[in-house]
Amino acid sequence: MLENFQIPKKLKGLIETEKQLPRILHLGLLCSVLTLLLSREPLPVSALTTRQIPAWAYFGGVVGVLFVVLSNLTAPKISAFSMTLLIFVGQIATGIAIDVFVHQQRSLGKIAGGVLILVGLLGSLSIDEDRKRERS
User: Would you kindly state where each structural domain of the chain is located, as residue ranges?
Assistant: First the structure.
């Protein structure tokens, strides 16, 4: 079975990441710009100049980078099932936080669901730890 942390080792000889990464990024930028131009959609410049977009909306990129970094640090240490549940619980928690702080709404159903999933995740992690100890 191939573990998450073994994949970079297997690909190391196939991809020279340091040399290819700038090319990949530039190609992605080029494709994005071409898609924007070919779609013939009007550019939303007026939204930027009239300050219709709140300042906090620009922090999505920072949150995305933090998510990727934390995922890469966490993935080798837990199972794929636990990783999926963690991501799901994080999305539920973020949705609840947005509802509470932005929309001033509280949903007991969402909170209860998030807590139940978190309890299930913790139970699954403890079972995994017990199995690892039994094997040792």
Answer: 1-41, 50-135
Q: For the chain, how many residues are written?
A: 136
Q: For 21-49, write each residue's pLDDT tens digit.
A: 677 778 888 888 888 888 887 776 666 66
pTM metric for this prediction: 0.50
Identify the burial level of 74 via C-beta atoms within 10 angstroms of its C-beta, where 0-12 means exposed, 13-18 middle and 19 or more buried. middle
Q: Report d(CA 112, CA 106) in Å as an integer.
A: 11
**Which contacts qualify for 45-48: CB closer than 8 Å, 24 or more apart?**
none
Return phi, psi of residue 124, to 5°: -65, -40
Q: Which of 12, 1, 15, 7 is nearest to 76 (CA)?
A: 7
> Which residue type, as a one-letter code, is found at position 38?
L
Q: What is the tens place of the pLDDT at every residue in 103-116?
A: 888 888 888 887 88
Tell me the C-alpha distance between 124 and 76, whole Å.
16
